[in-house]
Amino acid sequence: MRGPEKLLESENHWETRMGGWFRNERVVYRGQDLHTDLMDMSWMELYLYGITGRRFTEAQLKVLNAMWVCTSYPDPRIWPNRVVALAGTARSTGTLGISSGIAVSEATIYGGKAIIMATDFILNTRKRVESGSDLSDIINQELEKYRCVYGFGRPIIHTDERRPYLVKLLENVGMDQGPHFLLSIEIEKILLKKKDNIYMNYGGLIAALAADIGFTSRQFYLFISTMFIAGKLPCFIDSSEKHEGTFFPLRCSCVAYESDITRRSWSSYKIAKY
Fold first, then answer.
1. What is the model's pTM?
2. pLDDT at 274
3. What is the DSSP string of 47-94?
4. Half-sphere exposure in the Cβ direction for 86 (13 Å, CA)
5. Tens digits of residue pLDDT in 27-75
6. Is the dihedral of CA 160, 57, 207, 135 positive or negative?
7. Sign of the CA dihedral 84, 86, 91, 96?
8. What is the distance in angstroms between the CA of the first residue and the CA of the last residue of the chain?
9. Sign (positive/negative) of CA torsion 150, 153, 159, 160?
10. Which of 236, 216, 207, 197 lies closest to 102 in space, CA to CA?
11. Which domains are present in the chain?
């Protein structure tokens, strides 16, 4: 933007199609009256409607809800949960703890960025295959560019314990024949021939399902941004109820120090005054 024109256009004025509060009268939510048109929705349905402007089938809602339930791990050793637990043991507030946990879920390897990459990959790959590209060539190009295929492979352990439960639900509700889901299985087969133990991970599975349901990568990223909260809250509560500062303490002797310097001198410094 150059010049003040756009700023002047927006002064005391904001055009939106999302909605607004009309004092003591009504609330409009994406063109619908929140208190009359949308009151029959569950919170999950409203959340999805806010992101996409769409209504979803009962089967789709079951699958989307299960995505959240399947990955709600109340284990404080998991990095985002550890941040939440640290907030509890430091006697911070629940809101700050949960917000911090969500923030560190914005990760390239395991979090929001990885989901965007996995969703973009499966969406683009299907388009390319439909246009005549060879699937093996696409995978080779992805490996050459990123040294991995987002949505496939898992560190430490190879398989994903969440996968069979979600796949079983897909079969039960008749959503196991989606084109992106079936394509992800073909990708897995090719990767397993190239390298041992490169199975589809949970991110790849839910990205394929999201693509079949009709999400864009950005919409799905927004949907999963609060996906892990149900696993974070117990970690905060647990650490808040224990002695302050006792979450995973580490004694100095446990730190492996290999430098030749046994003692360091610290330079003095002056704090600037403003």
1. 0.86
2. 39
3. HHHHHHS----HHHHHHHHHHHHHT----TTSHHHHHHHHHHHTT--H
4. 13
5. 999 999 999 999 999 999 999 999 999 999 999 999 999 999 999 999 9
6. positive
7. negative
8. 34
9. negative
10. 236
11. 20-55 (no CATH), 112-224 (1.10.230.10)
**What whole-number distance in Å separates Cα of residue 226 and Cα of residue 122?**
22
Q: How far apart are the C-alpha atoms of 76 and 247, rounded to whole Å?
A: 9
Q: Reduced to 3 states, what is the DSSP secondary structure of residue 247?
A: coil
3-state secondary structure of 200: strand
Q: Are 89 and 239 in contact (CB under 8 A)?
A: yes
Amino acid identity, position 187: I
Neighbouring C-beta atoms of residue 219, cutoff 10 Å:
18
Please identify every stretch of the chain with a pLDDT value under 50, giving residue numbers as ranges.
Answer: 273-274
3-state SS of 94-144 is: HHHHHHHHHHCCCCCCCCHHHHHHHHHHHHHHHHHHHCCCCHHHHHHHHHH
Separation CA 260–CA 73 (nearest Å): 42
Distance CA 212, CA 190 (A): 21
CA angle 212, 45, 94 (to 5 degrees): 110
Edge-to-edge strands, sheet with 19-22: 19-22, 26-29, 32-33
Q: How far is CA 89 from CA 54, 81, 178, in A?
A: 41, 12, 45
